[in-house]
Amino acid sequence: MLGWKLFVRALTLITDNLMAAMKVSLVPYALAVGAGLWVALSYPEWVGVPLDPENPPPPGFVLGTMGSLLVGVLASLWISVGWHRFALLGEQSGGWVPRLNGNLMLGYFGRTLLTFLMALLAAIAVITMLVVLLVPLFGESVQAIPAVGGFFAACLVFYRIGVILPAGAAGKPMKMGEALIATKGQAQTIIVLALLTVGVTLLLRLPLLIEETNVIISTLYQFVTGWIGLMLGVGTLTALYGHLVEGRPLD
């Protein structure tokens, strides 16, 4: 099954090139971890607390959280572009600080927003259609079906259009129409790939839902599983682009 082969390719890309993966990601991710830990250590009583308008968090926590998110986004862009370029072009960092491809990262950010927006619109359209068609006939007993349908629609659109991300990172920008042509007829492959990626990521997060742990341990565990999820997600897009667009073998 092609979806499984692509997932395995994304996984082995990390395991077979672990040192390169660390060089691409260690410094950027350490910055994100440091920012997140600073917030967790400074305001441990507010970490994970739902927002309550009647009991708002202190300004320092809000600003710290926003700053941590910005650092996290920057780190994700830095790592994603670097890993795409390593996998597709063989570009390696000479040291432990990866190359900061500012223009490529900016373009990657824009393409990511566009891809997520298209996926969100697809999800909304499918959910709305299923709600209109099913709820009047079957009532609230089928309310989960629109949500599931929206999820699959979002995954399908995201991965079909998402090949523009590794393409742009490699300096070979694609248009959305070109991406749709390249991934035409691969709906089953994309759904399997998305389910495997999301499933593994959720399984890694499962211990946090089962057992309450110290806030610092919990934060560190989230960062470790977040790194795996990020590298795996970027890797699946890389494998999809490499195979469907550039015709690279998976064996």
From TrEMBL:
Alphabetically ordered keywords of this record: Membrane, Transmembrane, Transmembrane helix
Membrane-spanning segments: 20-41, 61-83, 113-138, 144-169, 190-208, 220-241
Top-level division of the source organism's lineage: Bacteria
UniProt-recorded name of the protein: Glycerophosphoryl diester phosphodiesterase membrane domain-containing protein
